[in-house]
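Title: Comparing notes on inverse folding

I've been comparing how different people in this forum approach sequence design from structure. To keep things fair, I'm posting one structure and asking everyone to reply with a full sequence. Here's the target:
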C-alpha cells in the first residue's frame, strides 16, 4: 500500500442523543445544525458505533479500515502491540440535560464481568447487560463552556449534614448507621441503602426530598435537585447532589474520572477523551437498567478531597499536558504555535481559530474551528501554526 499522507482531514459522526444541546456546537464552532436535532456528541476516532472518516487523495475512507491496512505504521509499534487498535475515543460533548450518574469498572473487574455475562448468555445489546467489552473506561473532560458536573463523594460529615437538612424519614435509621460508622464501609452501606429503595419507601423518600426542595429555593443544591427532577422525575439519582461534589468547571479546567468514581455530567460543552470502552454502570438519572449489586461492587466509597476534583496540567511553554495515569490516552492543549513529535497516532482538534499543520514532506492542512485531523504515527513530526487554541489527543 502507498504511504498515507501525514495529515488527514476527518469527517466525524454527530450523535443525536436526546440530552444533547441543539445550539452549543453551532455556537462554538460555527457548524450549522441543519437537522435541528440535539447534537450531543461529535465522535473522533475509530469506534464501531461511530467511526470517523478521513479524506485521502479526494477519497473518503473509514478510519478503522485505514488503520487496519497498516497498524504498525499508523498506530506506532507500541500501540499496535498493546492495543491493536486506536486505544482512545475523542469527543466533543454538549449536554443540555444531565447524563446518568455512573461508575466505570476497573480493567480487572471489566474482564471478569465481561466473561461472566458472556458465560451467562446475556446478549451484548440486552438492557441488563453491564459489560460491553473487557476494557476499563477512564475519561477526561475539558470544559469549553462552564460545565456543571458531579464528581466523587463528599466527606462523610458533609453527606450527613446534607441529609440531616432534608430530613428523610425513610432514611433516618440508615443515616444513624452512617453517623456511627464514618468509614468506607459505612458509606458503602448508606449508598447501597439509597439505591436499593423500592416501591412505597422510594416514593416516600423522594416525596420528602421534593417537598424540601420546593420550600428551600435558595440553596444551590436544592435548586439543582429541583432542576434535575424536571428532567428525571421520581429518579433515585435525585439524592446524588446530597452525596457527590457538585462542581462547575470553567472553560479551560479539566477533570479526570478514574475507575470506581461516581460522576455525572449535568450541563455544558467540553472535550472528552476516554479509553475505547462502553463499560458504564449506572446509578441514577437514567431510564436505563441499574444493577445495584454491580454498581456497589465497583464503586470506591471513599470521599474525594476538594483539591483532587480538578486535574492540574503540567505547563511547558504554551502547552498544557494533563498527567493521565493510564496508557490508553494522553491529552494536551496548546495556545499558538507548536512543534510536535508523534508518539502514536494523533488527533488534532481546532477549538477557536484556524490551525495549520506543516510537514517536512511539504504537505500542509488547514483546520477551521471545530475541524479535526488524523495524523498517523509515521508522520513522525510536524509543526502547527495557530493564533488560537487547539487540542491534541494521542497515547
Ligand atoms: Zn463516565
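Reply #1:
Here's my take.
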Amino acid at each position: 500500500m502507498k504511504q498515507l499522507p501525514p495529515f488527514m482531514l476527518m469527517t466525524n459522526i454527530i450523535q443525536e442523543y436526546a440530552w444533547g444541546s441543539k445550539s452549543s456546537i453551532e455556537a462554538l464552532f460555527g457548524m450549522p445544525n441543519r437537522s435541528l436535532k440535539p447534537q450531543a456528541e461529535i465522535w473522533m476516532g475509530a469506534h464501531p458505533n461511530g467511526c470517523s472518516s478521513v479524506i485521502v487523495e479526494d477519497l473518503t475512507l473509514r478510519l478503522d479500515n485505514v488503520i487496519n491496512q497498516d497498524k504498525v505504521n499508523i498506530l506506532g509499534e507500541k500501540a499496535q502491540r498493546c492495543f491493536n487498535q486506536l486505544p482512545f475515543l475523542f469527543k466533543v460533548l454538549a449536554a443540555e440535560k444531565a447524563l446518568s450518574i455512573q461508575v466505570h469498572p476497573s480493567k480487572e473487574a471489566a474482564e471478569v464481568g465481561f466473561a461472566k455475562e458472556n458465560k451467562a448468555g446475556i446478549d451484548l445489546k440486552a438492557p441488563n447487560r453491564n459489560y460491553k467489552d473487557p476494557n476499563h473506561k477512564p475519561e477526561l473532560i475539558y470544559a469549553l463552556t462552564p460545565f456543571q458536573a458531579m464528581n466523587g463523594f463528599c466527606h462523610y460529615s458533609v453527606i450527613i449534614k446534607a441529609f440531616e437538612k432534608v430530613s428523610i424519614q425513610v432514611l433516618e435509621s440508615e443515616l444513624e448507621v452512617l453517623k456511627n460508622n464514618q468509614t468506607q464501609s459505612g458509606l458503602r452501606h448508606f449508598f447501597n441503602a439509597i439505591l436499593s429503595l423500592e416501591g412505597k419507601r422510594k416514593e416516600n423518600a423522594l416525596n420528602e426530598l421534593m417537598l424540601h426542595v420546593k420550600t428551600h429555593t435558595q440553596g444551590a443544591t436544592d435548586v439543582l435537585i429541583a432542576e434535575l427532577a424536571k428532567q428525571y422525575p421520581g429518579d433515585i439519582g435525585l439524592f446524588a447532589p446530597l452525596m457527590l461534589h457538585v462542581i462547575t468547571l470553567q472553560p479551560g479546567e479539566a477533570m479526570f474520572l478514574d475507575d470506581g468514581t461516581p460522576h455525572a455530567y449535568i450541563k455544558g460543552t467540553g472535550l472528552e477523551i476516554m479509553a475505547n470502552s462502553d463499560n458504564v454502570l449506572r446509578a441514577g438519572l437514567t431510564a436505563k437498567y441499574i444493577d445495584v449489586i454491580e454498581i456497589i461492587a465497583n464503586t470506591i466509597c471513599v470521599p474525594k478531597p476538594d483539591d483532587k476534583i480538578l486535574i492540574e496540567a503540567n505547563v511547558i511553554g504554551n502547552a498544557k499536558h494533563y498527567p493521565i495515569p493510564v496508557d490508553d490516552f494522553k491529552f494536551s492543549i496548546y495556545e499558538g504555535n507548536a512543534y510536535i513529535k508523534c508518539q502514536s497516532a494523533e488527533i488534532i482538534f481546532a477549538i477557536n481559530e484556524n490551525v495549520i499543520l506543516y510537514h517536512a514532506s511539504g504537505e500542509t492542512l488547514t483546520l477551521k474551528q471545530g475541524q479535526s485531523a488524523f495524523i498517523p504515527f509515521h508522520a513522525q513530526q510536524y509543526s502547527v501554526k495557530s493564533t488560537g487554541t487547539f487540542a491534541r489527543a494521542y497515547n
